[in-house]
Description:
By secondary structure, the chain is an alpha/beta fold. Helices cover 44% and strands 14% of the residues. It is built from 15 helices and 13 strands. The strands form three sheets. A seven-stranded mixed β-sheet has the order 2-8-7-6-5-3-4, with helices on both faces. Helix 3 runs parallel beside helix 12 (253-265) and helix 13 (270-291) crosses helix 15 (362-373). It is globular. The chain starts with a helix and ends with a helix. The model has no long low-confidence stretch (mean pLDDT 96).
Amino acid sequence: xxxxxxxxxxxxxxxxxxxxxxxxxxxxxxxxxxxxxxxxxxxxxxxxxxxxxxxxxxxxxxxxxxxxxxxxxxxxxxxxxxxxxxxxxxxxxxxxxxxxxxxxxxxxxxxxxxxxxxxxxxxxxxxxxxxxxxxxxxxxxxxxxxxxxxxxxxxxxxxxxxxxxxxxxxxxxxxxxxxxxxxxxxxxxxxxxxxxxxxxxxxxxxxxxxxxxxxxxxxxxxxxxxxxxxxxxxxxxxxxxxxxxxxxxxxxxxxxxxxxxxxxxxxxxxxxxxxxxxxxxxxxxxxxxxxxxxxxxxxxxxxxxxxxxxxxxxxxxxxxxxxxxxxxxxxxxxxxxxxxxxxxxxxxxxxxxxxxxxxxxxxxxxxxxxxxxxxx
Length: 376
């Protein structure tokens, strides 16, 4: 059997075990069947007797209005993907500022997961205020050695551990960008859950930036899709580019329905998910310290959002298989997939706490960790 076939078989086993589990911290999008996903659309807060959208009218326009209202911006535009939304936002700012250079973190989404699209598709260049696995400092933004037209901040910085600056640090970062005469763009794919850490409402957070991107499937559980929010004039310009990029799709009401459902159901719950993640992280640190593993790291120690990283000194496949056996044998899913994310011999995984994880207690975490470590 080839390695590819082995991985396909293991993925099938993982998904089957996750679906069958009676206890888990979250549910993976891989678990839902087509029928289950369609059934959830019928529960969306929208008149099901109303017509679907045609090129973004109707329900899509209603979603755009709702997002602008939540973020406190003049307007918002729906996009089929966050990758498209951000490329267009940064391209528009380059045109408006006359400077094609974007200052961003090398661990940000455009650098890690978009196939060099900023340079290949839009002719933009990037500079990095820092290469450290953390948010940049205002001093580092101020010390960038060449002019840049846009400062992009990913909030939270997912690859570094879902890290957010403090509110005061964010204000200072924005001010440092403005002192460089740059436009400020927030990659807010997971901005929805940042209100707890910042202690500020969404409009106050979004109000610091000139444009904000938000996702509908990350945190909110939508099918797909994203939005760009900002001034009316800027958003209208992004709509022109959306059409040029092929994003003016004939009908998108399923995505819009699922996004509205996420805003209705998941958005109000996110603060409780963040609070529960902090409890789980604390209990996990204690459990790992008592478990006998040679070394462990929960990062950050107190999660900034409802997602955080865990590091252990084993091969990723070994840990993934241990979690699979635990799920199959006990019906409990705690850790899912592990990957190589740093120095040799260390593996990293992400924990995501959503509605299924709210019922967990500290003792539940301790029991799950003990059962996992016994299978390593």
